[in-house]
């Protein structure tokens, strides 16, 4: 039996590049989600509102929740997650943006392929 078959934990790495076509809509959606969060303490709410209002990337990071990505996957439970967002210069024709590029590990070791 291989290590992969006996391990119960898997690190899933996902990198997304999104084009924000309407930053105001993203900000409004983040503010609506903040307003609906009844468990968020007032001090944290004020900080979050300021962050999402000043930076569309922060608003997007507030809206994208890793739990939502795996919530419906049967047989898994999210143990830990972290994520961030940043503004970038994006050129889809640049070799720097090759999404097929690996991070130095063989894809077969990751259970892909």
Essential attributes:
flat; 113 residues; disordered C terminus; mainly alpha; 5 helices
Terminal Cα span: 19 Å
Low-confidence stretches: 106-113
Average predicted local confidence, pLDDT = 83
Q: What's the helical proportion of residues?
A: 25-40%
Strand content: under 5%
Question: Strand tally, please?
Answer: 0
Radius of gyration: 18 Å
**What is the N-to-C succession of helices and strands?**
HHHHH
Sheet with most strands: none
Shape: flat
> Based on helices, strands and strand pairing, what is the structural class?
mainly alpha
Separate helix tally: 5
What's the layout of helices and strands?
Elements: H1 3-6, H2 23-36, H3 42-54, H4 56-63, H5 66-70
Helix pairs in contact: 2-3, 2-4, 3-4
In short:
The protein is an all-alpha fold and 113 residues long.
Tell me what the structure shows:
It is a single chain. α2 (about 25-35) packs antiparallel against α3, α2 packs across α4 and α3 (about 40-55) crosses α4. The protein is built from 5 helices and no strands. The model is unreliable at about 105-113 (pLDDT under 50). With about 110 residues, it is mainly alpha-helical. The longest helix has 14 residues, at about 25-35. Helices cover about 40% and strands about 0% of the residues. The chain is flat, with a radius of gyration of 18 Å.
């Amino acid at each position: 039996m291989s290590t992969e078959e006996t391990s119960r934990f898997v690190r899933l790495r996902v990198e997304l590049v999104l084009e924000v076509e309407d930053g105001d809509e993203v900000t409004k959606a983040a503010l609506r989600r903040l307003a609906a969060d009844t468990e968020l303490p007032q001090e944290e709410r004020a900080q979050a509102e300021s962050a999402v209002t000043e930076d569309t990337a922060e608003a997007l990071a507030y809206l994208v929740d890793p739990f939502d990505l795996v919530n419906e996957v049967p047989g898994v439970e999210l143990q830990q997650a972290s994520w961030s967002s940043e503004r970038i210069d994006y050129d889809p024709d640049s070799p720097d943006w090759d999404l097929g590029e690996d991070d130095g590990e063989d894809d077969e070791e990751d259970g892909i392929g």
